[in-house]
Specification:
six-stranded mixed beta sheet, four-stranded antiparallel beta sheet, 6 helices
């Protein structure tokens, strides 16, 4: 029995190709999507789900690892199209996802904008606009390190602050698989 599936998506965003790897976790009563890509990415995500034999209407939950636009940008669109989806993230990320607080990446980018060299200011403005395009999303469930769910043969939430203060990973204990958002990068593996 399949417990999870990775959905590789190549999405063109702002004229650049981006590889995204959202994951679907299967549980006894749930079909759970982990992260969802950039704003406007919902069509590519729906296509990837359909190609994988998963109807988007089957999704019951959307787990968000952290507030970056390439992980949460399509959340609003998905919830609008599929209102049965319950959105989950860490308590710390909640106010940034719901719009109660300004996205931390946007605040950082706006602050850095005035210090950028002239030849980088246009890119900085474009980056700020990209972050502003992320629409707030309702939160239905807060998760925290140690929580356990019956998805993917047993899924443990790991608090992994660092990339953002509320970043979380999802460990599929029955599969020895870690869905890490941006907590691990290929370039950092094997380094101390």
């Amino acid at each position: 029995m399949e417990r999870y599936r990775i959905l590789p998506i190549t999405e063109c965003y702002d004229g650049m190709e981006h590889r995204l790897h959202p994951v679907v976790l299967f549980g006894p009563e749930d079909v759970v999507l982990v992260d969802c890509g950039y704003p406007g990415c919902s069509s590519a995500l729906e296509e990837a789900l359909t190609e994988a034999g998963i109807r988007p209407e089957q999704l019951t939950k959307l787990l968000l690892t952290h507030q970056d636009d390439d992980h949460v940008g399509a959340a609003f669109e998905l919830v609008q199209r599929y209102p049965q989806i319950r959105v989950a993230a860490s308590r710390i990320e909640r106010p940034y996802l719901t719009g109660e607080k300004k996205n931390l990446r946007l605040a950082q980018a706006e602050q850095l904008q005035e210090h950028l060299p002239e030849d980088q200011k246009a890119f900085g403005l474009q980056f700020c606009e990209r972050l502003r395009a992320v629409r707030p999303v309702k939160m239905d469930l807060e998760v925290e390190g140690g929580d356990w769910f019956p998805w993917a043969g047993g899924c443990r939430v790991l608090a992994t602050p660092g990339h953002t203060s509320g970043s979380v990973c999802y460990l599929a204990e029955g599969e020895d698989a870690l869905f890490a958002g941006d907590t691990l990068f290929e370039e950092s593996l094997g380094r101390t």
